[in-house]
TrEMBL record:
It comes from the Bacteria. Coiled coil: none annotated. Pathway: Amino-acid biosynthesis; L-methionine biosynthesis via salvage pathway; L-methionine from S-methyl-5-thio-alpha-D-ribose 1-phosphate: step 1/6. It comes from Tumebacillus flagellatus. This is Methylthioribose-1-phosphate isomerase. The gene is mtnA. Its EC number is 5.3.1.23. Catalyzes the interconversion of methylthioribose-1-phosphate (MTR-1-P) into methylthioribulose-1-phosphate (MTRu-1-P).
Amino acid sequence: MQPLQWNGKSLLVLDQTLLPEQEVWDDCDTYELVAEAIEKMKVRGAPAIGATAAYGIAIGANAPDALALDKGPYLTYLDEVCERLAKTRPTAVNLFWAIKRMRGLIETNGDLSVQELAELITREANLIAEEDVRLNKAIGQNGLAFIPENARILTHCNTGSLATFDYGTALGVIRAAHEKGRVQQVFADETRPYLQGARLTAFELHRDNIPVSVVTDSMAGYLMQQGMVDLVIVGADRIAANGDTANKIGTYSLAVLAKHHGVPFYVAAPMSTLDYEMETGAEIEIEQRSADEVIFIGGKRMVPEGVPALHPAFDVTPHDLITAIITDQGNVEQPNTENMRKLK
Ligand code: MRU
C-alpha cells in the first residue's frame, strides 16, 4: 500500500491521520497543500516526507503562473518553494536531502528554459520515489543477516510502506524476513501519541498476513523480561556521523531496555537518512509538536483542563546502544564515527 500517488499534475496523499478507519486521499495540487500535508502529518515517515517534498517542488515548478515567469523570477520563485517545504518539519533529514538534491539539479541546469526545467524537476521527483522502493528492498536483504528463524521482533512507530514510497525500512527487513518464513511474531508498539504503531504498522502487517500484536509502549520492558523478544528493529529520521540516531519518541527507552535485557537493537534506514554534517546526535533538532496531540485522543480530552503536556516528537538513541545500523549500502556493526565512515 503506497501512501502517495503522482497523477502527472498533482500528488494524491493518503491521509494517515484517518487510518485505519477511513482511507481518504487528498488531492494536493499546490505546493502549499503539499507543505500542509507534511505539517499535519497526513503523510509522515522520513523517506515519505522526502519524496513528498520532491513532488511539492515539482508541483510548484509546473504551476501555470510560474511557467509564465521569466527565468530570473522563476528561479527566485523555486527558491521560495524550497524554503516553504523546508519549514514543514525539522527532524527527518530526508526532507532536506530531497530539497538539496532538487536545488542542485536546478543549479547545474541553469541554461535550460523554464519549461525544460519544470520537466526535469518532475522527472527527478519520480526518480526519488522509484529509487526509494529499490533502496528499501536492499535494506530488507541486508537486514536478513540479523534475523534468526522463528524471530519474535519488537518494532516502534511505523517504518513500512506508509512511511516510505513502498516496502519500508525496518518493516522492509521484517517483510524480507517474512518472505523467508523467519517471522514468528511482530510486536508493534502502540507509539503514543500519534499511534503510528497501533494504527499504521498493525494495519499494514495485518493486511499482508504478517503476524502482529499491538502492545502499549509501556509493555516493552515486560515482554523483554519474559524472554518474548529476540530483537528490536526501528527506523530513523536522522543518523549523525557517529551513529547516534534520532527516531520516534520512545525509541531511546526501548534501546535502554534492550541493552539491559541483552536483546539486540537494530536501526534500518536508507543512506539519505545519514547526516555526516552532524558529528553527534546532540546537534539534531528535535521537533516539538502541539501538546494537544498528547492531551486529546480521538478528539476526547485525556488530561484535566489547565494541565500542560510535553510533546517532543523524537528522541536520540546514543550509538553505543545500537547493535547495528542496516542501510541499502551495507550494515555497520558497533556503530561509531570510525565504523560509520566506512559506509560513506
Ligand atoms: O513523526 P513521524 O511519524 O514522521 O515519525 C516517523 C518515524 O519516526 C519513523 O520511525 C522514521 O521516520 C523512519 S520511517 C521509515
